[in-house]
Amino acid sequence: MSQASPQDLSGGLRDLNTPEILRERIDYAYRRVWPLAGATLVVSLVLSAFLWRTHPLDMVLFWQAVMLLLALGFAALRWARSRAADAARRPELWARRLAFGAGALGAGWGYGAAAFFPGAEGQQAFIAFVVALATAGALPIFSTVWWVYAIYAAAVMLPFNVVLLAYGTDLLRLLGAAVPLLYVANVITAYELGRAFVAAYGLRTAYKRLSGDNAEIQAQLGEQLDSLLDAHREVQAAARKLALFSERAPIAVFEVDPNATILDMNPAAENLFGFAAPELVGRSCTTMLLGSDDRERTEKWWSDFVAAGKPATIVGEHCMRRDGLELACEWTLTPLADEENRVSTIVLQGRDITQQRAAERVRSEFTSTLSHELRTPLTSILGSLQLLRSGAIGPMDKDQDELVEVAERNGQRLLDLINEVLDIEKIESGRVSLVPEPIALEELLAESLRLNQGFANRFQVKLAVQGEVPDTTVRADRKRLMQVMTNLLSNAAKFSPPGGEVDVAARQEAGKVRVSVSDRGPGIPEAFRSRIFGRFAQADSADSRIKGGTGLGLAISKRLVELMLGRVGFEDREGGGTTFFFELPVMPSEEGAQEGAARVLLTEPDSVSADYLAMVLEKGGYRVDTAPDAGSTRELLGRWKYAAWLLSRRLAGGVDALGLLAEMKPRLRDTPVVMVAALTSDEAGIPEPQRQAIADWLSKSDSRARILEVVDHATGRVTS
Ligand code: ADP
Fold first, then answer.
1. Ligand 1 pocket, residue 388 CB under 6 Å
2. Please, where are the H alpha helices in 249-328?
3. Is the CB of residue 413 below 6 angstroms from any atom belonging to ligand 1?
């Protein structure tokens, strides 16, 4: 779009002599050629009629013929211009032609005036009048190009003036002297008229442009307005839809500001919490909705969450209902950011999982009770069967022996299943504690092959280590890692063709060691791959009847390796078969130096104190894991079994550590707790159950000797 700015307009007025404007000026003059020719004819005829009797007839006729020709010439010029292809392109050419015509016409009038002037006075006055008429009458026609007019007027006036001066009477000479003045005045008038024309033209074009632009702007504004209205309608529709979703949604939805103040809530939220919206709007959501005993910790979490601006999912275990009932809710928090990328509101969607939690608890308790109840009689059944087969009770015939063997094999399968179910329940409910120790990789592989070769023999499969095993140590729970190895080896043996070989290899890279177990079996079917680490996942359940197995082995292995900070995976083996592997972090060599060192956990938010205590304990022969906050403490305590837990009395933000101690107590079993206080007087006001859990107290200002003495005493380590 071309929009006329004020500069454009003034520029248009200033620049008045462009070819375009000249063309317009010439056009104007040419358009008036018809009236010019007509007037020329009429005035010349009147003059001829007037001179008819007083002047020689042939002279009058000659002049009249000349004037007729001139009028026709003008008409022809106009006609030619209207036909000419270059009329618009070459305004100067047509201006010159016009000037030529004007000069000729002027000369016609000038010649007539000069030739017919001598005579009676009345006639002279009439001729002077005609001259004045011809001069002034051409002004509106030629004045758009002042110099054309100047030529015309000069051609009219010059011969007339010569005659005036030649006649010699004083009056006429005086008149003759005044004629140039008249000429100049006329030319100035023509010039000024021309300028006025040009200015008017400029204004006209500017106006045209403006109104053109204006129309365009109007049209565009109209379009923009239309699309804005469309967008507005769409937004309104989307908002209505959203409001409807939220209103009808079966889950609780809250809108909350970054300060955790509730702005709005849906009917499902009212139902879930038993409050009407006006009662909750304006109140903080942290304690009531996110449900934690530790208000400060929740608030700290909230401010971190708002600062991060990332969606989060959390479970509030003790969300309060109006009637005092506690709910467990799973919350999905979605922060919405403004244009400056600052969180403006947060949408909380909550699902009541109280029932689910209860059901999970019941299921877990049921499975473990049932499994325990089954395991005890089953163990004695198996024992009796083994006794029977050993011949200790007396010899059995072949058929009896076979039957007892079938009973024993199936009993064993049942026992395996029960053990694995118990195992996975224990792992998933976080009730398993690993006892970490440095394990030499080579030794682990050799041991696992030795233990599993017997099982592999049943399938006529040979287990072998391929290539060199790196001289590396990993920190892991020996029994559990062996369980993982056993699972991978037994699977590989089960699925290998008879007479095949299972290759075990180890490779170290980027701080990790990867142990792989490869077979030449059928491989993992494509459709089964995504489920393989799930519970009770088996590609072909017929296999389990033939080869044994529960579909739990890989699920357990995966969770165990992850607890040991590693990962499990599998890939197709080149040439057929599968390679299962696990990766574990390699233990740094200086940790190796502390081989066999007792592992202690230190929960201390202050990094200076933490560094000091860790340094004293490490020098004293302990391996120290430091946790700056409750979250990492929970994770580490869930993962490892510690010889002692040193817990700072105050956690980050001055939070009392007794809450965390109470929460962790059931998981600690025999791990002693040493409270670390700024002052020992912190002991005051500790409730009895927590006091019992505390084995001893340390002060941050205690000497090295005192610190080691307390920790040695708590861990039961005897120092020399
Ligand atoms: P199971 O006790 O049945 O072996 P796992 O969890 O160890 O349970 O294995 C689950 C399923 O994964 C197996 O039933 C089998 O279908 C598949 N699978 C595991 N290891 C292999 C392997 N090396 N080759 C082919 N299939 C395997």
1. no
2. 267-273, 277-280, 286-290, 295-308
3. no
Q: Does ligand 1 lie within 6 Å of residue 655's CB atom?
A: no
Q: Give the H/E segment covering residue 202.
A: helix 170-248
Residue in 502, 518, 532 to alter for ligand 1 test, most ligand atoms within 8 A of Cβ: 532
Please answer whether residues 535 and 555 qualify as being in contact, where contact means their C-beta atoms are separated by less than 8 angstroms. Answer: yes
CA of 538 to the centre of ligand 1 (A): 6
Q: In this structure, are 132 and 261 located in the same domain?
A: no
Domain boundary among 331, 352, 373: 352
pLDDT of residue 3: 44
Q: Is 543 in the pocket of ligand 1 (CB under 6 A)?
A: yes
219 in any annotated domain: no
Instruction: Give the mean pLDDT of 194-207.
Output: 83
- Where in the sequence is the domain holding 424, given as residue range(s)? 358-428
Average pLDDT score over residue span 105-111:
92
Grade residue 509 by pLDDT with cuts at 50, 70 and 90. confident
Ligand 1: atom nearest CA of 533 is: 6
Q: Is the CB of residue 268 less than 8 Å from the CB of residue 251? A: yes
Q: Report whether residue 578 contacts ligand 1, using a CB cutoff of 6 Å.
A: yes
Phi, psi dihedrals of residue 265, rounded to the nearest 5°: -155, 155
From residue 465, give the alpha-carbon distance in Å to each of 24, 52, 462, 476: 102, 142, 10, 21
Q: Which residue, by CA, sits nearest to atom 13 of ligand 1?
A: 538
| Domain co-membership, 76 together with 201 | yes
Inside any domain, residue 228 = no
| Ligand 1 close to Cβ of residue 483 (< 6 A) | no
Total domains in the chain come to: 5
> 68 pLDDT band (50/70/90 cuts)?
very high
Domain of 696: which CATH number? 3.40.50.2300
- Tell me what percent of the chain is helix, strand and coil, each rounded to the nearest 5: 60, 15, 25
Are 118 and 12 members of one domain? yes
pTM attached to this predicted model: 0.48
| Residue whose tokens read 């005035």 | 43
Is residue 317 predicted with pLDDT exceeding 80? no
> Which distant-in-sequence residues (6+ apart) come within 8 Å of 394 by Cβ?
none
| Strand pairing class (512-518; 473-477) | unpaired
538 lines ligand 1 (CB under 6 A): yes
Token output for 138: 């051409």
Selection from 50, 191, 55 nearest residue 129 by Cα: 50
Same domain, 443 and 563: yes
Residue 291 pLDDT > 70: no
Nearest ligand 1 atom, CA 551: 8
Whether residue 102 is found in the same domain as residue 173:
yes
Is residue 143 located within the same domain as residue 188?
yes
Q: What are phi and psi of 72, to 5 degrees?
A: -65, -40
Region 221-248: mean pLDDT is 90
- The first and second tokens of residue 370, run together, are 């049932």
Would 238 be classed as within a structural domain?
no
| Confidence class for position 647, pLDDT limits 50, 70, 90 | very high
pLDDT in tens, 258-268: 999 999 999 99
Q: Are residues 100 and 201 in the same domain?
A: yes
Give yes or no: residues 191 and 255 share one domain: no
